[in-house]
Design a protein that fits this description.
The complex is a heterodimer.
Chain A lengths: L1 E4 L1 H7 L3 E3 L9 H9 L3 H6 L7 E4 L2 E3 L10 E5 L6
Parallel strand pairs in A: 1-5
Antiparallel strand pairs in A: 1-2, 3-4, 3-5
Chain B lengths: L1 E6 L5 H9 L7 E8 L8 E6 L3 H16 L2 E9 L1 E3 L4 E9 L2 H18 L2 E7 L2 E4 L4 H8 L3
Parallel strand pairs in B: 1-4
Antiparallel strand pairs in B: 2-6, 3-5, 3-7, 4-6, 7-8
The chains are: A alpha+beta, B alpha+beta.
């Protein structure tokens, strides 16, 4: 699975993209957030406050209860500020 | 007919508007909205980041929705990325229709969706200090009225 990070989440994590094998037991976006937060260092900081995060699964906006177990690409980013 | 472009380069508002009407007799109205970088509170520049692929998909889905809601003859959306200084153009939304009401409404609808759904992020630069801009509740309120 590809994970993508944008804006300040990318800066805190220290990379824009990585490949992971989803650990057993991770079903939802929320589970993935909790797992990433537990990886320490920049991750703990980036994922400290889930209320500040938004997610997309396979390039569609989703809520944190959405499933990730069959996703190819999951992205994390702050609320968008374009236009 | 719709065109969506994400690019670092500037765009020509007049040329884009002309393209929506050129060679057609069914266009009675072309509306353009251009967003610029506001140089408030000592802003030096904005840097825009996006999610390649998802940004285009997200905008395209809102263009399709606009085309279903209003009788549009064309839509052009150009959004710039990268570092932009005060006064620079950031975004163009141009809509065309037989009559002005549809063109005005669709342009506003598309801008409201761009601001709240399209994956772009702005980082402000003030001298050496850089800060990510936070999303505004007023933008979320603006998009809610279309539901």
């Amino acid at each position: 699975m590809t994970l993508l990070y944008f804006a300040w989440i990318r800066q805190k994590v220290g990379r824009s993209e990585e490949q992971i094998d989803l650990p057993a037991g991770i079903v939802s976006v929320g589970d993935l957030v909790a797992y990433l937060k537990s990886r320490g260092d920049g991750y703990a900081d980036a994922f400290a406050d889930p209320a500040r995060l938004r997610a997309a699964v396979d390039q569609e906006h989703v809520s944190f209860d959405a499933p990730v177990d069959s996703a190819d690409e999951v992205a994390f980013f702050p609320p968008v500020t374009g236009g | 007919m719709s065109t969506i472009r994400i690019q670092p380069e500037d765009f020509d508002v007049g040329a884009e508007a002309n393209l929506l009407a050129r060679g057609r007799g069914d266009v009675g109205a072309v509306v353009t909205f251009t967003g610029h970088v506001r140089g408030e509170a000592g802003l030096t520049a904005l840097t825009l980041e996006h999610y390649p692929g998802m940004t285009e998909r997200e905008i395209a889905s809102h263009v399709r929705e606009a085309e279903q809601r209003w009788p549009l003859t064309g839509v052009t959306i150009v959004h710039r990325i990268g570092r932009l200084e005060p006064g620079a153009r950031i975004v163009l939304v141009a809509t065309s229709s037989g009559h002005r009401q549809a063109a005005f409404a669709a342009a506003e609808f598309l801008m409201d969706y761009l601001k709240t759904r399209a994956p772009f992020w702005k980082e402000e630069e003030r001298g050496d200090a850089k800060t990510w801009i936070a999303a505004k509740d007023t933008d979320e309120d603006a998009v809610r009225r279309w539901r």
